[in-house]
Design a protein that fits this description.
The protein has about 250 residues and is an alpha/beta fold. The protein folds into two domains: about 1-105, DNA repair protein MutS, domain I (MutS, DNA mismatch repair protein, domain I, 3-Layer(aba) Sandwich), CATH 3.40.1170; about 120-245, Nucleotidyltransferase, domain 5 (2-Layer Sandwich), CATH 3.30.420. Helix content is about 30%, strand content about 30%. Helix 5 packs across helix 6 (about 230-245).
Amino acid sequence: MLHLQQYLSLKKAHPETILFYRMGDFYEMFYEDAKTAAEVLGIALTHRGQSAGKPIPMAGVPHHQARVYLKKFLDAGYKVAICEQMEPPGLGRGPVKRAVVRTITPGTLTEDDLLDPLANNYLVAMALRAAPQKGQQAELAVASLDLSTGIFQVVLTRTLDRTLTEISLLSPSEVIIPEGWDPPREMAGLAPRLTRRPDWEFDPDHGSRNLQEHFQVTTLDAFGIEDSPACKAVAGALIGYCLETQKGSVRHIT
């Protein structure tokens, strides 16, 4: 079954998501995703074909009702990769060409009808940078973004107390942190959804490149963060995460 091979290849590339795999008028889910969908969405679990002599679990939702089910997944803390058909069916002998066009997470939701009209939907990145030289202080910084409006801010918080206050004020839907960093215990009640990202994504030099490319500038002097490794780290990591999940469609971020 060629389309299942295609599904597995796409799922392998997006292992931490529920894969909404477009098949005609439905988004289908298979294997463990199907079982999760049946439990979280309250839909029927069926089967399609076999693998190693065992039925392959399958569940699906109509594409015109996808937002209803998408919101249920997000509210339950899941991320959803949207896989669309990129060509009309029947053009070739193989399966229809498909691609993931967007990954939706709690902090990257932009659909007005799924957002609270009276509140921002903040995605936040935070990190601690060690002191660059002996005798200097370590840095804490917080970057925040409401992807639905494009509002993007970076704050050098310096102390844990100020960092926690900033997080509390933002009330973020999702916080991204370096995978090798253990956040303070006080974060538990302020950031219910933590997303760990590779440490290298929080490298200040990598962050600078992300920011310069996105804003099409050669220096970050105008942003006031050129001399802050922590600010460059969190701001660049936030932009990089959005570029990855939105497949580059983030030009409205200012």
